[in-house]
Structure formats: structure tokens, C-alpha cells
Write a structure and sequence with these properties.
Layout: H1 4-10, H2 22-36, H3 41-45, H4 55-58, H5 66-74, H6 78-86, H7 92-98, H8 110-113, H9 121-135, E1 150-154, H10 158-169, E2 173-178, H11 186-189, H12 198-210, E3 214-217, H13 227-233, E4 236-239, E5 245-246, E6 259-261, H14 262-273, H15 279-282, E7 292-296, H16 300-311, E8 316-320, H17 332-340, E9 344-346, E10 349-355, E11 362-373, E12 379-392, E13 395-398, E14 402-403, H18 407-410, E15 438-440, H19 443-446, H20 451-479
Parallel strand pairs: 1-2, 1-4, 2-3, 4-15, 6-13, 7-8, 7-13, 8-9
Antiparallel strand pairs: 5-14, 10-11, 11-12
Helix pairs in contact: 1-9, 5-6, 6-9, 7-9, 10-20, 14-16, 16-17
Length: 480
């Protein structure tokens, strides 16, 4: 019989209902344990070859000391393993849950190259940090000596939260402004609970609040205050809003009822998990139960949507993607999970219209084929003549990615420099925007990306802000 620590290590999905009894949970464990042929985190960590070139660390955006904390875990020194993991990441248990390890650390494990299956690095990272929380090893923020300077952070997603953590340890007064009623950004409202349990996010937020970081939730910059107003309140600002503008499908019928944006759908589902009243979910508009669902897109957000629809009891779930499996941007591991759960992937297909009178009833699609490589090196999809077909659909979810909102207009700051894609421009060394004392980091700078990159960007920008604020304080003393 599997014990709780074993089940916690292998990371059984949150989606498995709580009502499953101990026998079912044990069967779940045995299936996964058989797959990896190891019973515990210590045994799994012991598979690490301690290779001379730690490709896993090199391909981790945070450059975590992965072989070292795997060795400590294998030796049963879990607290030391946690402390080492925590030294380079403000959210190790979150990254352990949601990083696409198959594209990063695990995908570059030499054990994987040898054909014996990668060390399950993400599961071990999750296990040691969850154990640290349970054992009380996660310490409060060590607030540095007060510097008499304050920082305002716009956006409470992973980049903003990571920067807030570091800046508070430097001794700054930190205020975080976010338009949502809960902090966390996409960690809270964009990623489903079966991948990232919401109490895991909230305990991180609570730790920051306990460390003296002030959160202004439900605060919309541009409505409740302009960017210039916040510049007057603080010695420095960080823009870490992320990118939330959904890319649209420009075909006939796109305005039909039942054609919805991925983030609206996922946010409604996550709000229900918090116990919120969500009128559009309760009316059925954002609930997939009993419906034939078609998700358009091939990224991680699309995978979140198809797997959420399965859990809501959809009659059928199909994913329409214009390229083939080998060329999709989403995690192959997520695709495999979705297929195991009954999702049908319709490769090399794209919508050309949404049918129905008022309410969507079908997706009229066309077959695609891969042509010559585009500017990114990927073979560009093109229409395959004569390959039209139709899919039944009561709900169509658009999951084509996200672009930056028009922040200069939204914030009342026309002088804020942005790229042609709307992302905020920063100096490559100082990470400062076109406005003095205003920095930016995360997806609003690099475009839609991974949570682990946002955590890394928050770490980097906090160091840049610290350097600039120290110089500002020194100059003020000299001038006085």
C-alpha cells in the first residue's frame, strides 16, 4: 500500500476526485510507480548520474542546482535539498508542478539520452518543497534593514511576486497593485487546479503579505491611478502585468454565442474552485458540461482548456490545430495526458467558419499541410485543397495565445516605449523602460512565455532595481 509521501511525490493530478478511496489511490500510485520503477523520491533522485556537464541545470531558466539537490534527496537530506532548491527560485513547488520539464531539465537529462527515461526532476522538486511546508522549514521573509525607499509593482503574477520577494529582502517598502481580487495572475486564474492547486499559490502570497508586502487588490492602473500618480508615490516602479489580450479567430461566425476566449473560460472555472459566484458559469455559458467542445490552438493554454472540459463532463472534446503533432508549441507530455483522458486531436486543421443560428453549432474546418519553413524555421501551414470538413460544436474555445494590451493608453502614459507588438521596451542592461525609474519584466517584455521565465525575470529585475535605488539614495545624500 502506498503511503501519503509516495503519492505526494508522484504528483497525482488534482483532478482525481477527493472521493476516491484509499484503494483507488493506491492503484493510481502503483500504476505510476510501475511506470518509473521506483517507489520513493529518494530512489528517483538516486537515478541521477551526477554527470560532468549538468545539462538539466543549463537548460533550466533559473539555473537551479539540480544535480546537487537530487543528490541530497537521494541521501535523505530533504531539508538541505529544499534549502538549495529555494536558493535560486522563489516558487520551486510551483515550477515543479507546471514547468514543461520535458522541454527543459528532464528533456536534457543524460539518463533520458541513454534511453532509460529521465529523472523525474519536477516531481522531486515538488516533493521536497511540499515537505518543507509541512515540516515548517519554509521560513518567513528575512526583511533587510529599512532603506527608506518604496517600490510599486504593477501586476501580481509570477514576475511581480518574485520581484516583490527579493526587493523586500533588500529592505524596501513594497506595494503590489493588481486589478484582480486575488494575487497570483495566471497562477491563480489561468492555470487549472488539477495542474496547480490554488492553496499552493495562496500560501506563497500569504507568506509575502506576512513579510510586510502591501497588496492593493482590485486596483486598476489607469482607472484608480495613472502611471504618473504611482511614480509620485514610489521611488521606483516595476511593470509586470503579463500579456492578457487574446488573439482572435478572424472567420465568419466568430461572434456567435458559445465561441469564447480561453482565459474567460479558465478564469470562470478557477473562480468556481474558490467558491465564487460566477454567473456565466452557472448559466452554462462558460461550463462545458454535456457539450461538444472544440478547442482551437496547440499551446499549453489549449491543453489546459481541453483537460478542463473533460473534467467538467463535456460530451466530447476535440483540439483543432493547424500544424502536426511534432510542430505544436505545447508540451508533448500535456498532449499525452489529454489523449489518455479522451481528447481527440485533429491535426493539420484550421477553422474557416463557425456555423449556427445565434448559438454556435459547428466548426467548418479545412485540412492543412506543411509548406516551406517560415521565418522561425518551422514549416508554415498552408491550405490543402479539397480537404474541407465539419465538426459538431456547442462550445468553441479560442486558445491561440496572448498579446500585450495597449499599456501606454491603458495607463495614461503615452511616453512609455513599446515595441510593434505592444511589449514594453527596456534597456538590456538596466531593465529600465523609457521612463526614469520605471522598470519592466516578465511576459510584458518578452511576450507570452513560461512561468519559470517570469520567475527568472523577477529575480533579475529586482537586482537591477536594487542597484539603481542604491545609486539614487547615494546621490540624494550627496546633494543634501
Amino acid at each position: 500500500m502506498a503511503n501519503d509521501s509516495m503519492l505526494k511525490f508522484v504528483g497525482l493530478p488534482q483532478a482525481y476526485p477527493a472521493k476516491r478511496d484509499a484503494h483507488d489511490r493506491a492503484e493510481d500510485f502503483r500504476e505510476i510507480a510501475d511506470r518509473y520503477a521506483v517507489p520513493t523520491a529518494e530512489d528517483q533522485a538516486g537515478r541521477c548520474s551526477q554527470c560532468g556537464v549538468p545539462y538539466c541545470s543549463v537548460h533550466c531558466p533559473l539555473h537551479n542546482h539540480i544535480p546537487d539537490w537530487l543528490r541530497l534527496t537521494a541521501e535523505g537530506r530533504l531539508r538541505e535539498a529544499y534549502e538549495l532548491s529555494n536558493a535560486t527560485s522563489t516558487m520551486p513547488e510551483i515550477c515543479g508542478r507546471i514547468c514543461p520539464q520535458d522541454r527543459l531539465c528532464e528533456g536534457n537529462c543524460v539518463i533520458e539520452f541513454s534511453g532509460h527515461g529521465a529523472v523525474t526532476i519536477g516531481s522531486v522538486e515538488k516533493f521536497i518543497t511540499d515537505t518543507a511546508w509541512e515540516e515548517g522549514w519554509v521560513e518567513p521573509i528575512h526583511v533587510g534593514p529599512a532603506r527608506g525607499q518604496s517600490v510599486g509593482i504593477i501586476g501580481a503574477g509570477p514576475a511581480g511576486l518574485s520581484a516583490a520577494d527579493y526587493l523586500r529582502t533588500y529592505g524596501y517598502e513594497v506595494h503590489v497593485y493588481d486589478r484582480h481580487d486575488r494575487a497570483g495572475g495566471l497562477l491563480t486564474y489561468g492555470i487549472p487546479g488539477f495542474k496547480l492547486e490554488k492553496p499552493v499559490v495562496m500560501r506563497r502570497v500569504d507568506r509575502l503579505k506576512a513579510g510586510g508586502i502591501v497588496f492593493h487588490e482590485g486596483f486598476a492602473v489607469g482607472e484608480d491611478a495613472t502611471l504618473d500618480d504611482l511614480r509620485q508615490r514610489h521611488d521606483a516602479l516595476l511593470i509586470a502585468t503579463g500579456v492578457y489580450k487574446a488573439r482572435d479567430v478572424e472567420v465568419n461566425g466568430a461572434a456567435a454565442r458559445g465561441v469564447i476566449a480561453a482565459l474567460d473560460y479558465l478564469t470562470a472555472s478557477n473562480r468556481k474552485s474558490f467558491g465564487d459566484a460566477v454567473a456565466e458559469f452557472d448559466s452554462g455559458a462558460l461550463d462545458a458540461a454535456g457539450k461538444h467542445v472544440v478547442v482551437v490552438g496547440g499551446g499549453d493554454t489549449a491543453m489546459d482548456c481541453v483537460r478542463t472540459a473533460v473534467r467538467q463532463g463535456a460530451a466530447s472534446v476535440k483540439c483543432l490545430y493547424r500544424r502536426d503533432r511534432a510542430n505544436m508549441p505545447g508540451s508533448q507530455r500535456e498532449v499525452a495526458h489529454a489523449e489518455e483522458e479522451g481528447v481527440e486531436f485533429v491535426w493539420l486543421s484550421a477553422p474557416q467558419a463557425f456555423g449556427g443560428e445565434g448559438d454556435v453549432a459547428s466548426v467548418q474546418a479545412r485540412r492543412m499541410r506543411l509548406g516551406i519553413p517560415d521565418a522561425s524555421g518551422r514549416r508554415a501551414p498552408e491550405v490543402d485543397p479539397g480537404g474541407d470538413f465539419e465538426l459538431r460544436a456547442d462550445m468553441v474555445i479560442k486558445a491561440l495565445g496572448f498579446d500585450a494590451e495597449d499599456l501606454p493608453t491603458l495607463f495614461g502614459a503615452p511616453e512609455l516605449g513599446v515595441s510593434r507588438w505592444g511589449t514594453v521596451l527596456v534597456d538590456g542592461k538596466t531593465l529600465m523602460t523609457s521612463l526614469d525609474g520605471v522598470f519592466a519584466a516578465g511576459d510584458i517584455v518578452r511576450g507570452a512565455s513560461l512561468v519559470v521565465w517570469a520567475v527568472r525575470d523577477g529575480r533579475d529585475v529586482s537586482a537591477a532595481m536594487h542597484k539603481w535605488l542604491k545609486a539614487k539614495a547615494t546621490n540624494a545624500r550627496v546633494a543634501a
